[in-house]
Amino acid sequence: MKQTQGTMQTLRLPEILDITRAGPLAESFRALRGAELAVDAAQVQRIGAQCAQVIMSAVSTWQADDFALCVTEPSPEFRETFSLLGIGLAEIATEEAAQ
Amino acid sequence: MDTIETIKLTFFQECEEQLAELESGLLAMNEGAADSETVNAVFRAVHSIKGGAGAFKLDDLVRFAHIFETTLDQIRIGQLPPSPEVMKVVLRTADVLADLVAAAREGDRLDEAKWLPALEECRALSDASHDAIELADFQPVRVSFDDIDAPVAPARPPRVFTIYFKPKRELYANANESVLLLRELARLGEMTVACDASALPLLGELDADGAYFAWTVELVTTRDEAEIREVFEFVEGDCDLTIEGAAIPAPAPSDVAALIRRVQAEMGAESRAPAFVQRPAPVHANAPLKLVADAAPSEGRSAAPPAKADIAKNEIAPPAATIRVEFDRVDRLINLVGELVINQAMLSQRIIEAGFANGSAVTVGLDELEQLTREIQESVMAIRAQPVKSLFQRMSRIVREVADATGKSARLKTEGESTEIDKTVVERLADPLTHLIRNAIDHGLEAPHSRAAAGKLSEGIVRLSAAHRSGRVIIEVADDGAGIDRARVRDVAIGKGLIPADAQLTDAEIDNLIFLPGFSTVSELSNISGRGVGMDVVKRSIQALGGRISIASRPGKGSTFTMSLPLTLAVLDGMVVSTSGQTLVVPLTAIVETLRPKSGDVHALGSGADVLAIRGSFVPLIDVGRALGFRTVPADPLTSVVILIETEGRARNALLVDTIQDQRQVVIKSLEANYCHVPDIAAATILGDGRVALILDVDALVARSRGDVAPADLPFAEAG
């Protein structure tokens, strides 16, 4: 059972998530550990494999911590890249924005 | 040379061609011609350089070309409009790419400070384009290039390839991106991809710059393994890669799904629409995630309309078949043909001496031999001839750099780029032309505010043109700047003791002072124009090519430097003449007519100067034997022959010689290479009887005789 800590936090992903942004992205996730998290991917225009790694590591981490994490409103580019990378979004993405 | 070195040499030769193609395409784009064919050509050029560089582990070049290619890709797919600002950066990036290629060719590594800023500038361009995209309006158009280069081959049956791809950390560190590689793969056919995330740690242990994902890709394609490997050619050292191929078993007639799959695969390579087939990813025992491929359709890109490039490719004419030949081999051939010409001349001489009658079988045969020799010679010369386009393209970079460095706005306009000229001449023109272009911008063009004050457009124009005229090539460098500041030039010349303070000089004479040795010094030159050479060096370089340079300048309107060059440095058609017992050759291109003066045609004009009356006008008459110091006593015009010539400046003069021997083709032997420069003499040749004859430099002789450039009482008499 997922723990809930009141209001869900939201992490809004920037438009560009290339190799230079993987480090900062990991730091952002680390800072938000210990609470439910909605990852807003609506603005993402470009995402590279290393940032995808960070996101999937965060998904596992949140699972391990027993908190909920979902990706909201993934942009077409986000979807396309994850599809290209062979990563399914079905388990983590939701079309409903977290409140 | 070992095989690798040979291949490497070929690679750099191809790089040269690709860079020329790149420059040409970018300049066209800069002029507004950003059609898909041009953009494709530009993209392909960079892609090819990157591919080859990867094979030779030229990492800097690969990395740079990769970023450049990414930016060009965005222009290609319409994400990044080729605005003037964008093109400025792209042109600069192309310049640096050329520098990296040049450094790699020399086996050096270019200092990072010289290319990293350009790399970042180029990268920022592509990042900015992403930032600027409005999602709602974003309808990407995928344009394929894969088929353009591929020869039309019979359709191959599709095969299924299993590709295992595991990037190493270095792959990302070298600015490569797995997403792009997978996207490239998707273009080749129908792809099913499974991600192995079993090595991915939790956030606490995660190194964000690490490489944890690995992929197993099933690709159904009509392409072969080599084409698949090409996708990875520049990251091969930075990843684990295995590719296994197998034929697709022929489906049973009832297996409709398999048939459709096969048809789709065969069509896939043409439609270029990436086709992803979702399938469950393999489940790994320790995988922290159970990932199921997204069922959502890939939007946007997969619904791309037919690629423009596919349409355009049908219109591209096949390039002419070519072979690559070492220049040395051509040179040897040229020399042999030169010897053949001399030998044929000697044979003619012997036959004349033997007294064979005109029309005899021997003389007819000799005429045919002469004709054949000429045709061979012209054909061989055509091998060496090349358009000046490549040379002119190089100059556009100089214009960009100097304009940037001086804060001036300048545009290079070129004309006659297809004019052909001997390759050696083209190569040896690069330095003098570079210097002239630098000068034109640095000294010729005014600063933008001065131009505006003078009612000119703030952007200065440097015009570079080439044309064939009277068997020579005329190259002009013109600017629309302020023109030569004659008062200043005169002051500098007096200050340096080059001319007496009270010297009376015409405007043309003052303009020509800039060609004097010692007029320019390093300390006085700016970083742009000055590289320790002055215009005298430019002039000497042109003269060494058998050419001449002249200057015309109009205050407020600009200056024009005109270079007249021989088409080839190997042979020329000349008139063989005698004077004072010496045999000389007068280039035929300069000769208008020959005549025997009558009594009363020659008039003395002052001391030692004669003019010839011809058809109602007077032209200066130069006694060649006396002018060259073969004799001191003037020749008797009535027993001599006059050769009427036209110089580069279109002025007519008459040369007085004793007799005309013959008119023939002569092989040019450089005096500079074998002896040293001799005033008024362009080169030497070997005649049919084995004697050496000097080839007159008609313009120099006329200029010196008239005192146009170098009056005898001035210290620059030897300026040439």
Question: What does this 3D model show about the protein?
Answer:
The complex is a heterodimer of chains A (99) and B (720). Chain A has one domain: Transcription Regulator spoIIAA, CATH 3.30.750.24. Helix content of chain A is 36%, strand content 18%. In chain A, helix 1 runs parallel beside helix 2. With 99 residues, chain A is α/β, with parallel strands linked by helices. The radius of gyration of chain A is 12 Å and the shape is globular. In chain A, the strands form two sheets. A four-stranded parallel beta sheet of chain A has the order 1-3-5-6. Helices cover 41% and strands 21% of the residues of chain B. In chain B, the strands form five sheets. Chain B has a six-stranded mixed beta sheet with strand order 15-19-20-18-17-16. Chain B has a five-stranded mixed beta sheet with strand order 4-1-3-2-5. A five-stranded mixed beta sheet of chain B has the order 7-9-10-12-11. Chain B is of the alpha+beta class. Chain B folds into five domains: 3-137, HPT domain (Four Helix Bundle (Hemerythrin (Met), subunit A)), CATH 1.20.120.160; 154-304, no CATH class; 327-386; 388-566, Heat Shock Protein 90; 571-712, CheA-289, Domain 4 (OB fold (Dihydrolipoamide Acetyltransferase, E2P)), CATH 2.40.50. In chain B, helix 4 runs antiparallel to helix 5 (112-132) and helix 12 runs antiparallel to helix 13 (361-384). At the A-B interface, helix 1, strand 4, helix 2 and helix 3 of A face helix 5, helix 8 and strand 2 of B.
Outline:
The complex is a heterodimer of chains A (99) and B (720). Chain A has helices spanning 22-31, 49-65, 76-84; strands at 9-12, 16-17, 37-40, 46-47, 69-72, 93-94.
List the helices and strands and how they pair.
The complex is a heterodimer of chains A (99) and B (720).
Chain A: E1 9-12, E2 16-17, H1 22-31, E3 37-40, E4 46-47, H2 49-65, E5 69-72, H3 76-84, E6 93-94
Parallel strand pairs in A: 1-3, 2-4, 3-5, 5-6
Helix pairs in contact in A: 1-2
Chain B: H1 3-30, H2 36-55, H3 59-76, H4 84-105, H5 112-132, H6 146-149, E1 159-167, H7 169-173, H8 178-187, E2 190-196, E3 214-221, H9 225-231, E4 239-247, H10 256-271, E5 275-276, H11 308-312, H12 327-354, H13 361-384, E6 385-387, H14 389-406, E7 409-415, E8 420-422, H15 423-444, H16 448-453, E9 459-469, E10 472-479, H17 486-495, H18 507-512, H19 535-544, E11 548-554, E12 558-566, E13 571-579, E14 582-587, E15 591-595, E16 602-604, E17 610-614, E18 617-623, H20 624-627, E19 641-646, E20 652-657, E21 659-667, H21 671-674, E22 681-686, E23 692-696, H22 698-706
Parallel strand pairs in B: 2-5, 7-9, 14-23, 18-20
Antiparallel strand pairs in B: 1-3, 1-4, 2-3, 6-8, 9-10, 10-12, 11-12, 13-14, 13-21, 15-19, 16-17, 17-18, 19-20, 22-23
Helix pairs in contact in B: 1-2, 1-4, 2-3, 3-4, 3-5, 4-5, 12-13, 14-15, 15-19
